[in-house]
């Protein structure tokens, strides 16, 4: 997911097309390792975001505004002094290096035209933003690198700027077949690794993509390639490099189940089984990709407390359920004690006083049975004792049966909430889940201090079900939680709509609007089933069994928990939890 030389080349082309000959009107430094340049060009204002963050170095055009510190840092003040109203002459990438040089022209204090360079190095923990004069002498940098930090290359005011060492890597834009074969194909490594360790700008992703274009496995050894395969690989390499030289880019993001997995400036054929979305610019790709990634990470973080509450409740109820089952098993002797009592009442007249047991015919099974007796009691007292034990176990059995059913329903309910937490993609999706946990006593409601009986202000519910449209044009809705499931099934759907749910496991209610049709196209049934499989506890398995029926066949028992339904008339199918290719509306 890092920015490789190919993505940088796409960024450079976009910045050239947009910012060349523009003038810098504003410079800000919202974070210690970030810059935002506002550039006016062709009567438009553009914001260029540059970050030398060690974990996430970036550069792209954005419309987002960031809050600036009250006092501008020294590096920002230096840039303002030199570059205010300066004109951008050119934007350059040396070879396919992860380096961008912005050539800038400005007037010095004497009114003479001067040239400066603002250089961004996108190199992970070694990323930096460096300001140089026309002779490539460092004026200052956003990070100072002394010889104590790096014995290879100092980045300090007054030092000459030198390009970071590329090691033994070659410039992909200038090599021919002979050099490619010598550098790459003679390395005793897997093919993909041989490519990205030999050529600048190549990331493991692009090395894998090149192998895929050539119909080769990136894990095969370079020594196993035939001459024909090697030549075919080079021809695809040439086409890739020519696309860079021609500026023929196709920036896009690869999604798996709606979550971004990877991005590139070219169409990634190595992810042909996943969904690819093409964007109008590489800046849009970067901004959208990292914003979505951050959103998913933030929601996961915000849901940690809720997950902990649900997990603890599941553990407690599971222990209680196991204990109740064990106690229930102990009540299995109750009918034996009843039979003992009846047989003693029937045949007790023949029992001799002081007997420890007696044998009688069990008229329920026509088999002889030996009944233990308390020799200190009369036969009738023994019978009464067994009936008392039977009645006690019977009462325990009846009570435990109810408790076990309640605990089982609680576990099903908690499991459905846990599945809903996995589905949540936005902060508002968590609001209803939190409300449900409070309503059923798994969380305490917080009260306003100093106001007994006053509850905190209830947050407005803005979360709505997922909305898809099938390949045949039918609208499909997916509940995100139990409250939405009930709303969708019993208030939104009509009796003739179709209802889908994963069989015997927690999951979303999926409703297909039938629009008066008695039957749906097979493809719509399959797509709705895939959605029901994906938005269920079985989303990480290969196949999920799905029940589906008309909505009129789905009933909600009185007093049941949210999301719980029953149905007796249904069809079933097996579906894959893969929703790629199904169009999402919102």
TrEMBL record:
Gene3D superfamilies: 1.10.8.50, ibrinogen binding protein from staphylococcus aureus domain. GO terms for cellular component: RQC complex. It holds the Pfam family NFACT-R_1. GO terms for molecular function: ribosomal large subunit binding; rRNA binding; tRNA binding. Key component of the ribosome quality control system (RQC), a ribosome-associated complex that mediates the extraction of incompletely synthesized nascent chains from stalled ribosomes and their subsequent degradation. RqcH recruits Ala-charged tRNA, and with RqcP directs the elongation of stalled nascent chains on 50S ribosomal subunits, leading to non-templated C-terminal alanine extensions (Ala tail). The Ala tail promotes nascent chain degradation. May add between 1 and at least 8 Ala residues. Binds to stalled 50S ribosomal subunits. This is Rqc2 homolog RqcH. Associates with stalled 50S ribosomal subunits. Binds to RqcP. SUPFAM superfamilies: S13-like H2TH domain (SSF46946). Transmembrane segments: none annotated. The lineage of its organism: Bacteria, Bacillati, Bacillota, Clostridia, Lachnospirales.
């Amino acid at each position: 997911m890092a920015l490789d030389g190919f993505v940088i080349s796409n960024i450079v082309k976009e910045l050239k097309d947009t910012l060349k000959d523009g003038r810098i009107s504003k410079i800000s430094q919202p974070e210690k390792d970030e810059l935002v340049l506002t550039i006016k060009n062709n009567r438009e204002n553009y914001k260029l975001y540059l970050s030398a963050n060690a974990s996430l170095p970036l550069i792209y055009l954005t419309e987002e505004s960031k809050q600036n510190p009250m006092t501008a840092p020294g590096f920002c003040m230096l840039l303002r002094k030199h570059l205010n109203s300066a004109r951008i002459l050119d934007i350059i990438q040396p070879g396919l290096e992860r380096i961008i040089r912005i050539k800038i022209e400005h007037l010095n204090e004497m009114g003479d035209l001067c040239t400066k360079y603002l250089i961004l190095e996108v190199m992970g923990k070694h990323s930096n933003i460096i300001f140089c004069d026309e002779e490539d002498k460092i004026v200052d940098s956003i990070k100072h690198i002394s010889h104590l930090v790096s014995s290879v290359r100092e980045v300090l005011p007054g030092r000459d700027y030198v390009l970071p060492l590329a090691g033994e890597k070659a410039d992909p834009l200038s090599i021919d077949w002979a050099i490619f074969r010598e550098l790459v194909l003679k390395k005793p490594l897997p093919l993909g690794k041989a490519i990205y360790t030999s050529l600048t700008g190549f990331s493991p992703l692009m090395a894998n993509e090149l192998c895929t274009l050539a119909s080769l496995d990136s894990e095969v050894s370079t020594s196993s390639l035939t001459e024909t395969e090697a030549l075919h690989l080079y021809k695809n390499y040439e086409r890739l490099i020519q696309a860079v030289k021609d500026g023929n880019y196709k920036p896009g993001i690869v999604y798996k189940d709606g979550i971004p997995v990877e991005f590139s400036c070219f169409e990634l054929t190595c992810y042909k089984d996943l969904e690819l979305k093409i964007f109008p610019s590489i800046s849009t790709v970067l901004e959208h990709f990292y914003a979505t990634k951050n959103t998913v990470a933030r929601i996961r973080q915000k849901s940690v407390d809720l997950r902990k509450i649900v997990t603890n409740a599941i553990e407690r109820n599971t222990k209680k359920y196991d204990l109740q089952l064990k106690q229930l098993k102990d009540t299995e002797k109750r009918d034996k004690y009843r039979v003992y009592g009846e047989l003693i009442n029937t045949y007790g007249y023949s029992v001799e006083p002081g007997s420890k047991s007696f044998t009688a015919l069990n008229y329920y099974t026509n088999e002889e049975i030996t009944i233990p007796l308390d020799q200190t009691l009369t036969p009738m007292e023994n019978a009464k004792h067994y009936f008392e034990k039977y009645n006690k176990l019977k009462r325990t059995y009846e009570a435990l049966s109810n408790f076990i059913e309640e605990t089982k329903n609680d576990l099903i309910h908690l499991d459905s909430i846990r599945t809903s937490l996995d589905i949540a993609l936005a902060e508002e999706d968590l609001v209803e889940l939190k409300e449900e946990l409070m309503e059923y006593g798994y969380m305490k409601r917080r009260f306003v201090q100093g106001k007994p009986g006053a509850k905190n202000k209830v947050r407005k519910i803005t979360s709505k079900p997922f909305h898809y449209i099938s390949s045949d044009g039918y609208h499909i809705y997916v509940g995100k939680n139990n409250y939405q499931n009930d709303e969708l099934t019993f208030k939104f759907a009509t009796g003739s709509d179709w209802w889908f749910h994963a069989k015997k496991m927690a999951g979303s209610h999926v409703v297909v609007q039938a629009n008066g049709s008695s039957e749906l196209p097979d493809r719509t049934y399959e797509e709705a089933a895939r959605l029901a499989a994906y938005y269920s506890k079985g989303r990480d398995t290969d196949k999920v069994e799905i029940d589906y029926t008309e909505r009129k066949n789905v009933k909600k028992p009185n007093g049941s928990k949210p999301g719980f339904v029953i149905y007796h008339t249904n069809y079933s199918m097996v579906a894959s939890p893969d929703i790629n290719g199904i169009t999402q509306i919102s």
